[in-house]
Each structure stands twice: as structure tokens, then as C-alpha cells.
Amino acid sequence: NAGVTQTPKFRILKIGQSMTLQCTQDMNHNYMYWYRQDPGMGLKLIYYSVGAGITDKGEVPNGYNVSRSTTEDFPLRLELAAPSQTSVYFCASSKRGGLTGELFFGEGSRLTVL
Amino acid sequence: GQQLNQSPQSMFIQEGEDVSMNCTSSSIFNTWLWYKQDPGEGPVILIALYKAGELTSNGRLTAQFGTTRKDSFLNISASIPSDVGIYFCAGRPETGTASKLTFGTGTRLQVTL
Hey, is the C-beta of B103 within 8 angstroms of any chain A C-beta? Predict the structure, then answer.
């Protein structure tokens, strides 16, 4: 019953460093998403993918990159970390997009940029 | 972007009390979803609503898709300590990319014994 798995759970970065947040799902879902959650706020969509090889920007894509080479994996890349990217990042997947796609979330990755 | 306003932002209630919270949008939505987030965890879906006026229950939880299609309500009956957490509404607007969910800012629920 793995569902959506994210690594690492916690990470501290220095300004300007790069890192990749890993996300994998074993539910054979076509749709995958990356959200960030800032304190006291709802989730903001960073990037999403409707299938392998297809990605698109969400609401707050600046400073991030994604790739989707397989159905299972959807890594999120931070190239030049900035303090504004301190947040909790959630990966999610859904069987369908559209009106009936209910999202299943990972446990989150807490990133601090100092 | 879309705005979803959740009310109240936080609430303290006593065990056994009923809880009501709501979510309103500035535009018409086609889908409403309610999620719960426990500390240190990702959100978990509670209820999904797909038609205006729809009323759906999941145990002690009941949610409704508002008839104006601009709001949704979640009720929890006879609250228990494990109901503690943050409740998020989420929805898909009538216009725009159907794959994108908009999330509210959450209602933090704390239950006292």
C-alpha cells in the first residue's frame, strides 16, 4: 500500500544550491502534481503532468523544473535555491484529470533554504 | 488566480460537539473536494462532490455542493479527538484547465476533552 512516496522528508539547503525532490507512485496513475504549502496557506500548484513525456506549468512554476520520463516518477528540481522556496512540498497523483480526478498525496517534503 | 475562502480559519470545540465549516469561491465550480491533513502528513480525501445540491456522507462527515455552485459545506457530527487537523476544501472551476485543483486556506480544528 505504498501509494505516493516522496523523498527526502526533510532537507536544509544553502542559498544557490540545487536539489531534486523525488516522487514515485505505484497506482498506475496518469496524472501527477507538485504542490507547495506555505504556513497557514492552502496548496499552490507548481507543475503537473498528464502522462509520461508531458508536463505543464501550474500557478507558481518559477524556480522549479520537472520531468516525467515514466508513469511512476515525477521529480521536482530546484536549480538555485532561494529562501522564498522554504516550504513543504507535496506530490500527488490521480487516475484521471478532469472533473472526477481525486488527488492522492504523499507525506510531504519539508525544505528549508538558509 | 482563483480564490477559495474557508471559514472559520480555526476553531476549538469540545468533544461530542458538531462542527460546521464552509468554503466559498468567486466563480462557479464543477467539483468540490474536502481533504483532511494531519500534522506532518499529506492531505487525505474525505468527500468528493460533483453535482450542485449533492449531499454526501462519509461516516460522521457530511458535505454539500452548494446550489449556487460557488460554495460547499462540511459538517462533522459528534466530534472526537482524532478529528483534530486541518480541513481543506478544493475545487475545479467551470472555466480553465480541468486538471487543476484550487485549494482553500484550511480550517484548523482542535478538539478539547
Answer: yes
Instruction: Give A64's pLDDT tier (boundaries 50, 70, 90).
Output: very high
Contact A109, A9 (CB under 8 A): yes
Nearest CA in chain A to B5: A42
Nearby residues of A62 by Cβ (< 8 Å), 6 or more positions away = none
> B40 and A41: CB-CB below 8 Å?
no
B91 in Cβ contact with B4 (< 8 Å): yes
Contact B5/A at CB under 8 A: no
Percent of chain A at pLDDT exceeding 70:
95
So what's the pLDDT on residue A100? 58
**Interatomic CA distance for residues A99 and B97, integer angstroms:** 10
Q: Give A73's contacts (C-beta < 8 A, 6+ positions apart).
A: A22, A23, A24
